[in-house]
Design a protein that fits this description.
The mean pLDDT is 87. The radius of gyration is 23 Å and the shape is rod-shaped. The protein starts with a helix and ends with a helix. 80% of the residues lie in helices and 0% in strands. The chain contains 8 helices and no strands. It is mainly alpha-helical and 186 residues long.
Length: 186
């Protein structure tokens, strides 16, 4: 009888440790995503000023500016899923990169003090987003490993925990920037 109680206590302790570990990892992912969300909000807040500053110079890039504005509006909606936010972030990063490249063709715009300040602010925010993405991806990897590895996968299945998506760079970001194309734009 005493041996049965010891085995029951050990099994109970293991189950409690696995449960608490999974809850800790899930909460870590949620906490870090909230940090990513806060930095993304800072970028969303900066975008209207950037668009307003560059739109009078960049008449030929109107569709890019509209895309950025639309993506910002969509990203600001409440209740969208984390996966949708990750997808919007990838699209917005690509669109903002297009604006940055297009700005090279407008010397007056590049020399504008307000635009230069906004570009520096945007670059700083992009670095914060990059750091936040790395922390989030590490936390998600830890959670996903726990969800898939034995024996925690049994507990995760019982808790109905699902794999989380990580931030991935887009195909455009993986390609090298053609410096020659940048200087040949007119």
């Amino acid at each position: 009888m005493q041996l049965f109680l010891i085995i029951l206590a050990v099994v109970s302790l293991i189950l409690i440790l696995m449960y608490n570990s999974l809850i800790g990892k899930k909460n870590q992912v949620d906490n870090i995503f909230a940090g990513v969300d806060a930095v993304l909000k800072k970028r969303f807040d900066l975008i209207p000023n950037l668009v307003a500053s560059v739109e009078r110079y960049m008449e030929h890039e109107k569709s890019t500016l509209e895309t950025v504005t639309q993506l910002r509006s969509e990203g600001m909606k409440s209740g969208i899923s984390d996966e949708r936010k990750i997808a919007l972030d990838a699209k917005l990063t690509a669109a903002l990169g297009s604006i940055t490249v297009a700005m090279e063709a407008y010397p007056d715009l590049k020399a504008n003090e307000n635009v230069m300040h906004l570009q520096r602010s945007l670059a700083e925010i992009e670095e914060q987003i990059s750091a936040a993405r790395r922390a989030y991806n590490q936390a998600v990897t830890d959670l996903n490993n726990a969800i898939e590895m034995f024996p925690t996968n049994l507990m995760a299945g019982w808790m109905k925990l699902q794999r989380r998506a990580v931030f991935e760079i887009t195909l455009n970001e993986r390609q090298n920037v053609s410096v020659g194309d940048l200087f040949n734009r007119s």
